Amino acid sequence: MEIKLSVSHDEPGDVGMQDSFMFIGELAKLTNCDPKTIRFYERAELLSPPRHGRFRTYLHSDVQRLQNVLMLRKLGVPIAQIKDILETTGDDSDVLASAVALKMLRS
Question: How is the chain split into domains, by residue range?
Fold first, then answer.
């Protein structure tokens, strides 16, 4: 049984926009990432989904964040450094720019 919840945002430009919550299995399918890996990243504080009861719930922003984490891992960036990157760059485009810069430095 899958339960869908939604929350609306009142930020400028988001008029009428709603994000659907998803559970870890759906996030795993969307990102082609094992749920155990997602839980590991949560324990490493790379992801911090809210919980509804016993269940983790994820938003579209979590999908983007996980994809950034996976990309940085593919580039060989250590977990601790990914955490620093994510803490210092709040914007997804900043994370991508950091990843590209790291790759160029290593090449």
Answer: 6-106
**Secondary structure (3-state) at 78:** coil
User: Which residue, among 52, 56, 47, has the nearest Cα to 23 in the 3D structure?
Assistant: 56
Average of pLDDT values for 39-67? 89
CA atoms of 23 and 43, how far apart (whole Å): 17
Residue 5, phi then psi, degrees to nearest 5: -115, 160
- Distance separating alpha carbons of residues 69 and 46, to the nearest angstrom: 8
Model confidence, pTM:
0.72
End-to-end CA distance of the chain: 48
Q: Is 58 left (phi over 0), alpha (psi -120 to 50) or beta?
A: beta
* Cβ-based neighbours of 9, under 8 Å, separated by 6 or more: 17, 18, 19
| Structural class in CATH, domain 6-106 | mainly alpha
